[in-house]
Every structure is written in structure tokens, then in C-alpha cells.
Amino acid sequence: MSEKLQVVIEGSIAKVLINRPEKANALDRELWNGIGECFRGLDGNSRVRVCVLSGEGKHFCSGIDLQLLQEIGLQSEEIDCEGRKRDFLRREILLLQSAFNEIERCRKPVIAAVQGTCIGGGLDLISACDLRYSTRNVSFQIKEIDLGIIADMGSLQRLPALMPQGAVRELALTGRVFHGEEAYSLGLLNGCFEDRESMMISVQGIAQSISEKSPLVVSGIKENLLYARDHTVSESLSHVAAWNAAMLLSTDLRNHRLILPKLASHLDPDQC
Asked: What is the mean pLDDT of each successive set of 10 residues along the chain, which is 272 residues long?
């Protein structure tokens, strides 16, 4: 793994750190490719049950490194045929998109812990995560409109499932900065904290709690929530029925059957 993207596995929790603080954790080609490779690997790692994604230094992620945009532009200019040039650009965009798609494809829940700045590609990145937490003073921004491009790494596709449609439209069309408390009130964040230390303590506790649940059920919840986002209620109900028909008779369920009677014996009937 690259020095720019560090992974440490503690117990069943994988801690993924974007480590390019001298560039405000801007995403260059190496980092972009590394993110996709990282989450493909974590998906197949049986030791890992949950992932925590954070950024080293003052900022979580300042988006795409503008030098990468320039490199792609220069490469496209070397192609004489207009059709092949457009095809090259399309394939480059799809390649970059695939890195963030790997976060969704990863069966392990991914928790983003955000501080400082999270703009452009950084916001695209956390929109693909399962849970998002930040400090109060974080600056979020759908920055692309100020660069003369349409956000194409996932914000326009994923944020409407997390926030009100009108809010996403306003933020995308104006490019205005919004902060932690507003992001929390809009539904982008699961929690907002005074400082990074208290955020990381809380995120660690949430990750630990998830890691203690049945991994088969956790991955099934993630799969079915993502499916429900992109399908009708009827289709989603059929999907979860098929899922449980295939996965329900697991050792996890049998183990819980042994636990439930013990729990029930301690319940006060008057409190049920």
C-alpha cells in the first residue's frame, strides 16, 4: 500500500488514513487508484468487519489534485481524432468513479471521520461511505461548479438519497460552503462534534459496536439498503426475501437462538 494511503488493522477494525497532509490530502492518481485497491482488499479480508476512513493533518480531503486534471487534459490533447479523444475522457472519468464505487461494493461498513476541509472529490468520497461524522468547523462544498465542470464522482447521484433534493440542488448550483452543524441538520452527517478527539472516540465506539454484530447480517443490511436506494419498495422486498431465504439459516442465527431464551428469562413481563 502507498505511503499516501495507510491501512492499520486493529482487531476487526480497519483504519484507513489518507496521508498527504502537505497537499491538504488532495487526491492524485496514486491516491485515487489506492482507494479502489484498498477497499477491494478489505472486502476480501475475513479479519475485517468495519472500516474507518480519516485524513491526516488539518484537512480530511481538499478534492482532486488539479495537477491530475491537467495531466488528463494534456493526454487528451495528444489524441487527433475527436471521437477517440471523447472516448478517452469518458474512460478516464469511469476509471476515477470506480475507486469510490469500491467503497459501496465493500461488504464491510465504511465510516468517514471528517475534519477541516471536505470539498469536491472529498465530498464525493464520503457520500459513498455508510456513516459520516465530522467536527463542527468542517467546510463542505460541492466545488465543481466553480471549476466549470459538473460534479461527476458521485455527489449528484448519492447526496439526494441522504439530503433533501432542494438542498442538494442549491449547494450544487451555488457552490456555497456549508459547515458541520448544517450538514448534520440536512442529514449528510450522523453526528457532529466539537473537536476531532471527541469525534474519533465516538467513531471508535460505533465501529467497535458494529464489529461485534454478525458479519453476515451486517453485510446483508448494507447490500439491501443500497439495493433499496436504487429500486422500488416492491423490488426491494423481493430482494430481501431472496437474501434471507439464502442466508437466514446461518450459524449466527443458531447462536442467537441460544442467547435469546437467556435474555428473555431476565425480562420483566410488566416492562414488555
From this structure: 90 97 96 96 96 97 92 89 92 94 97 97 97 97 93 95 97 97 98 97 97 93 95 96 84 58 50 48
DSSP string, 28-69: -HHHHHHHHHHHHHHHT-TT-SEEEEEESSS-SB--B-HHHH
pLDDT in tens, 73-97: 899 888 989 999 999 999 999 999 9
Gap between the Cα atoms of 91 and 227, Å rounded: 25
Catalytic residues: 64, 121, 124, 144, 152
Question: What is the total count of domains within the chain?
Answer: 2
> CATH no. for residue 253?
1.10.12.10
Per-residue CA distances from 175 to 9, 23, 120, 178, 202 (Å) = 37, 22, 10, 9, 30
Separation CA 246–CA 239 (nearest Å): 11
Parent domain of 171: 5-211
Judge whether 138 and 115 are in contact, CB under 8 Å. Answer: yes
DSSP state letter for 183: H
Report CA-CA distances (Å) from 188 to 16, 17, 130, 133, 219: 21, 21, 11, 9, 22
134 & 232 share domain: no
pTM attached to this predicted model:
0.90
3-class secondary-structure state, position 111: strand
- Terminal Cα-to-Cα distance of the chain (whole angstroms): 51
